[in-house]
Amino acid sequence: MAIHPLPPLVLIAFTIAGFSQQDIIENEVNKIWISKNGEFHKTQEYINSVKQYESDGGRTVFAAIAMSRDGNGEENLFTPPKLNEVLDRMAELDKVTVEYKGEIYNNQDLCYSNSFGPDTAYEFVCARFSPMDLFEETGQIEFTEQARLTWYNKLIFPQLVVPRLARYGVVLDYCLSDGLLSTGDHCDHDYKMRVDEEYAKAQGHPEYYNPFLFFEDIGQFEQNNRCNICLEKNFNDLMDDTTQKYKGIFSALEKRLVAEPLFVSSPVNGNLSSVALLGIVKESIADIDRRMIEEFFVYYNARRVYGNLAASSYAEAYNQFLGTDIATVCQDCISNITEAEAMKHLFNHADNTYSSDNTAGLPFPFWNEETGYAFDYSDSAVLKPIGGSGIDLSGEFINDVSGVGTGDLDVILNDPILVWTLAGHEPMTGKCGNEVISGTNSGNGSIDRQSSLLIRLASQNLCSEYYPPFEEKDLKTKRYFAKTWYDLLTNSPTFLGITKGINDPYTYTLALGCGYGFGGKRFAFTGKSDEEILNASSGEIYWLEEGQTLGPLDANLLIGKSEPAVSEYSRSNPLTKVGAIQNIYITSTPELIVKRVQHCRRPNGPITNLTIEDAEEILYRYKIAMEDTWSRDWNDDSSGGAVKFVGFYDDTGAPGTLARMLEEITLSGGVLMFLSYALIAIFSIAFLASSDLVESRVGVTFCGVLLVILSFFSALGLTILIGIKLNVTIGWTLPFILIGLGVDDMYIVSIALKNRASYEKEDLVAAMQEVVTPVTMTSLVNFCMFAVMNISSIPAVYETARAAMIAVVFLWLTVLLCFPAFCYLDLMRQRDGRCDVLFCIKSNKARTPSTSAVDESGEDKKKKTSFTAIFYNKFYKPLILEPNTLRTISHISIWCLMIILVSFGVYGFSTAKVGLGLENFFASHSPSGEWAKARTETLASWPITMNWGEVNYTDPNTQLQILKQFEDILDTPHVSEVDTLQLWIAQFSIWTTKQCDSNFLKDDPSQPECGQDMVYYDGSKCEGTWIKNRIGLREKYFAGYSDICVALEGGICRPTSEMHPDELKQLEQEGIYNPVTDANESWCPIFSGWSDAKFEFCLQNWRKYTGGAGGLPLVPDSATERGGCSGEYNSDDEIVFPIKLSSGPLMYGIQLFSHEDTVDLIQETREICEDSEELHCFMTGAPYSYWEQYIHVKELLIVSIGLSIAIGFGISTIFLFALLNAEGNHSVGKIAKGSLFGALLIAVSCIVSVITVVGLSALAKVTLTAFSVMSFLLSIGFTVEYSVHIVHRFITAPLNFKTGTERVEYAMSFLFLPTFMSFASSTIGISCLGFSDINFTKVYFFQPLLIVMFVTYFYGCFFLPVVLSKCSFSFLMLGENEEENKDNDKVQQQGKQDNDPSPVSDDVEEGDETSLEVNPPPVV
Question: What is the Cα gyration radius of the chain?
Fold first, then answer.
């Protein structure tokens, strides 16, 4: 055997080479915790293989929890002071910035969305979801002046006002039975329900009466609604016909002005020559398109709305006004004005001269335009209203283009569209003013004062800096100022009641969400009682768009610790307490940040040189800043306020909370590691030290411990070099476990050598020959045990196992090849009489080698006083070995204890729970730990998504099956509700039918945007159809006039009564629909008979015109730049074809309060998706990535245990047989029997040990995870560590030891000390884990491993010897015949003494602590 050491320099080299590498810590949780096998892994591999980067990019999320400090969140958070505290912290969060390379980056640069549509980036608030959106006060911290203007200019006016005003006149003229161009009574019912109070009462819905809300109804009608069908058809026809007609009119007017040189009088331009007018007409011709025509009708209908809807209130105000003394100075005032006369007054006001003094003006016709006084009849003036649009739109429309060439030019030029168009080219200087309107100047002081007061009360100061030019006049056009006047009118309190630049979605609601009125406000908690706040908060939570795109926000994600529970509270069963809330802040990933900061509207200028690496660093710093800001004073209960704030950032894009925590935990064990090693070293030295400074082995023991430590870290160095990063499991298990195993083997070598009591090389070799087999066996079993852990699909487990396998090899090589060389040097020191440690000092006594610690008579030559000897002789031996009553009692007790432990183990295993949550990873006293606890206990939800692969999307059956799977998933108990319309294929299918509403609001008015408007190359259209609902798909919910608001609309199928009549006719012609038998049928949209090419064409147009495609992969960088603005793109990205992957909308797994709940979610949804034989789909999201492993964790445990024990049994059998057969002392049959039985005893010890460990750990609330499985398997390693040595020494005991008890005594007299030292040193190392403040470490490593230590020591050193003491079988007696070899030993020993040049002393040193009392064998 080689005795030269493996140079420690090699070990040092491996250590330095590995630990000097960059990025050696694994902080990506998906590379630690997520299974690399199973359904989810297959899903992820498929997704990664086909999914390209989507143009909407990725996102990373900050989950910010606020909870009441009182009772750790048990008290109500919804009180005014606490809500204000939350708002203050939210305001701080919005101001977080980070500096990088001289640039400042803020929320607008990094949030996922800072716009709500085209041309609004950097001008709107960042998207985030919060229950604080329930309250009006939130708008004060969320909305800047710019955001309020953007909301009005880009949302309210163009998307709410414009399309409705443009259509309003069509309803009046075409769709009412008394309309000027009536086509029927299509809108009579819906119109009267809003404008006729008596009619609404007669219909049983008096609450529905509100004239201005008919304006909101336009655009909310179902597409099959009779009123809507009439409205949309006539609107489109009117816009198209009018556009074409006025192109002809302007062309004809141009020709006439060229042909007839004359002076004309234009209501806009005044008296001018035809040449001058011709120039204006030529400029105006370019304006004539559908967009300009629609704009005209917007303002023309605003005029009509003013006259129609305000006439009643105007007449009432007019008559009240004239009921005062002021009427005495009015010479031509009409008493008791009618609504018809009132309407005329209002139209006159709209057509009146624009006023820069008081632009809003007053409609009463009381003022002298020259003097400005009311009822001033000087100079025979005609009294008029104050203010007006400045453009007279009261003229008649031209009906016939041919009449333009010959008709009266004065009449022609009064055509409202001509007037409006020409006004756009007539310069005008003016401003928007709020000057005081004058009263009367009658000379009667009382009347003049009264009129002044009343007029002031009636006046509206509507102008502001948001209607430029304000205060200072500027040059614009007449049409510009006319639009300003109409905009003021539309926004005035008598119509929309909105204040531009002041109102926002919190102070002006659109009646789109349940509980919100048109023009109302969100609930203001200031000054309200707790009960009022809770009652108001018991409805749905909406973001700014009131659910139109996202639907109601899921309260399971946002509300926690509520009473009633989230699933139970409602307006009829209101909240009585909310203990916690969670805000969700969505941030861009680095790829999107790089694009975002290139935007042309970025306030501090575009940044065009930012790299992905730069963006990652910016995002990393931003995450830390957000966490620090939100979680400030989280643990300061005295001055931190009444609300505790804690947050968690995910790891997408840049390391977040968990990644930083993983790195911190992985590296945080250094102090405990050092403490563990120091204690092990001290303990080892204490047991191997001696008062005899020469016999003492402190130095070699210390060197052995250092060698083991160095060997372990050099193994880690090699592990790093081969590409395995250090993870939290490696950091918190192997340094504490493997050092103990290595030191255990070192003890075996040290004590074997010490017991030989000799200083010659041959004795060292003999000692090593004695231990090499058991040490190799235990190392090989440990190696194989760690190899078995590679069957786990969890990276943390199999990578830890691989690191451990390398370490086991290094430790084995070190203990057997390197440490013996140091032992040999120490022997030479002892032989030369040199002191331990201080080896330069020599003792005056020479050493005499001795071959045995026991003489022929059996008397101990060295009396022992060590603690171990005392413990063995006074405690262990009487209990286990000496034939007396005490031994009988102890044996029975040990058997009883074994039965009890195994019973507890079986029970514990049968009741064991599974799972490891985020709360287990974080330190309990940390903001992230508090967040994880609150998230688990009260906000237990996770985002999930459905996915489909390369299926036949053009097949109607596939389309319906996708809808069915989606709705079936929503029906499971742990998935939140989502409208079916959120699914892309549902949106697309509806788009292909007449239920498409995309033409209501178009980017280009001349381009229809529904599927049936898209013509494919073969002349067919992107037109779908309907099929009978035969598979139970959900129907859409239709509220009608019910006062019950339903936040979700349900499915996309619809009953026959809600079908579009044109589509029913088509279905009837095709023989699919029978009006008689199918009256109660349900219908679902499909598209069929399309080629793949047509499907691609239609889908691309759907994406282009509607912006849809959520869930479909897009070709990177294929969108075109919008409007020449860098960073702004159209939604015309190319969809990747063929579609190999599509995804559903974001859903949430809810009420996941336990790991079992999450496993239930996985199994319930997989039964519908992955297990479907009709159509395969697959689920993704945190529950599937992290919790899938727990479905099969018990199976993993059983298989791992079985394999480990089987391998241990096989190795033990082979080694014992090979060793004993090589000695040749017994027959092959006997050796085979003995080897098999010995291996069986080792296996049985392992079985009872692991059952006990698993069960007791489960009872100690250690759940089953891959990490705890690894800890459980270590029980096999430690059991083998004890049992192999004991069984090996038992069966190789000399043949003169006849009984099982004698052979056990022979084994344990030698092994008691090393096994006790092994147990003690390993327990010391494990105990240090208990000082960690990381709950994960304590629960999944410290607790089970501490149980492992005591259980395996009990079974290995107490239970196994008791069993062996009863095994006096002859086939287990496989040792040498000591009587035959005794004479030979004497001759060999005498030869050694004759050849020894050193002086011989008869003195025997007292105090040696290596030998234990062994009774001599009986003389046969």
Answer: 45
Q: What is the number of other CB atoms lying within 10 angstroms of the CB of residue 101?
A: 10
Mutual angle of helices 956-970 and 1155-1168, in 10-degree steps? 160
698: pLDDT strictly greater than 50: yes
Helices (H), 397-538: 409-412, 416-423, 445-458, 478-491, 530-536
- For residue 1352, give the 3-state DSSP assignment: helix
Sort residue 633 into left (φ over 0), alpha (ψ -120 to 50) or beta: left
Which residues, 6+ apart, have CB-to-CB distance to 1225 below 8 Å?
1374, 1375, 1376, 1377
What is the rounded CA–CA span in Å between residue 330 and residue 313? 21
Cα separation, 77 vs 63, in Å, equals 18
Tokens representing residue 888 in the block: 């009988």
Distance CA(172)–CA(441), nearest Å, equals 42
Contacts of 155 (CB under 8 A, 6+ apart): 116, 117
What pTM was computed for the model? 0.84
Question: Residue 149 carries which DSSP code?
Answer: H
Return the ∠ at Cα 112 (arms to 107 and 118), rounded to 5°. Answer: 105
pLDDT per residue as tens digits for the range 760-784: 777 788 888 878 877 887 788 788 8
User: Rounded to an integer, what distance in angstroms lies between the CA atom of residue 43 and that of residue 1289?
Assistant: 53
Print burial letters for 1377-1414: b (CB count within 10 Å at least 16), e (below 16).
eeeeeeeeeeeeeeeeeeeeeeeeeeeebeebbbbbbb
pLDDT band at 848; cut points 50, 70, 90: low
Cα 155 to Cα 1373: distance, rounded to the nearest angstrom: 94
Instruction: Express each pLDDT in 278-292 by its tens digit.
Output: 888 888 898 899 999
Distance CA 823, CA 1 (A): 14
Partner residues linked to 1028 by β-bridges: 1083
Residues with Cβ within 8 Å of 1322's Cβ and at least 6 positions away in sequence, in order, are: 737, 740, 741, 744, 1278, 1349
Which H or E run includes 538?
none
Whether 1011 contacts 1022, CB under 8 Å: yes
Q: What's at 324, amino acid-wise?
A: T
User: By C-alpha distance, which of 1150, 1156, 1178, 1186 is closest to 972?
Assistant: 1150
DSSP string, 1120-1163: PBSTT-TT-B-S-PPBPSS---EE---EEE----SHHHHHHHHH
pLDDT at 863: 38
Segment 1278-1307 shows an average pLDDT of 86
Task: Give the tens place of pLDDT for each residue, 580-624.
Answer: 999 999 999 999 999 999 999 999 899 999 999 999 999 999 999
Residue 872 structure tokens = 């063995």
Residues 487, 446: contact at Cβ < 8 Å? no
CA 1212 to chain centroid: 49
